[in-house]
Amino acid sequence: NAGVTQTPKFQVLKTGQSMTLQCAQDMNHEYMSWYRQDPGMGLRLIHYSVGAGITDQGEVPNGYNVSRSTTEDFPLRLLSAAPSQTSVYFCASSYNSQSNQPQHFGDGTRLSIL
Amino acid sequence: KNQVEQSPQSLIILEGKNCTLQCNYTVSPFSNLRWYKQDTGRGPVSLTIMTFSENTKSNGRYTATLDADTKQSSLHITASQLSDSASYICVVSASDYKLSFGAGTTVTVRA
Hints:
The complex is a heterodimer of chains A (114) and B (111). With 114 residues, chain A is mainly β. Chain A has strands at 4-7, 10-13, 19-25, 31-37, 44-51, 54-57, 64-66, 76-78, 87-94, 104-105, 109-113. Helices cover 0% and strands 48% of the residues of chain A. Chain B has strands spanning 4-7, 10-14, 19-25, 30-38, 45-51, 56-59, 62-67, 72-77, 86-94, 99-101, 105-110. In chain B, strands 2, 4, 5, 9, 10 and 11 form a 6-stranded mixed sheet that branches. In chain B, strands 1-3-8-7-6 form a 5-stranded antiparallel sheet, with no helix packed on it.
């Protein structure tokens, strides 16, 4: 049972480059989300999805796109990387957005923008 | 604005000792409060979830308390072990299911 799998674990980009962070879950969870974690701050929600074909913006969506073509996958795309996007990115999933069930997190992608 | 404040920011304890972490929140209306443990280089892992009617919930050596009237929660670690070294994150869910995350308390357990 893999849970939530994120790839890559580490990535270095140059300003202006684009890339896609991958996230996959094998628990048949409807709700998936992307967060960024910066030093001294709580996790901040970037985008989320309540099911295949449905996505919505979170607290800090600018500079990021998402898509949800299947229940299992929820990739996060950086359109034109900026140094301010240097962060650790976490993908999470849960049964649905309206339950008291815990979120399951991946182990993160550590992204540096030069 | 919904906020979650955790204290202390960090603490160091000796192996075998107990410690208590604090979480104060202004989230309203309240749905539930969660404590997560995040090991270095890993994602957060759920320890407990408490709803409005629950005052105490335990998970092994971890005991969480909730006072919904004062909007405070605590996480008590009993007989600490080296493996307890981690960041502990308090997360509060509002009735619209939006989550507010605290910045975490970093616990270091020394032999």
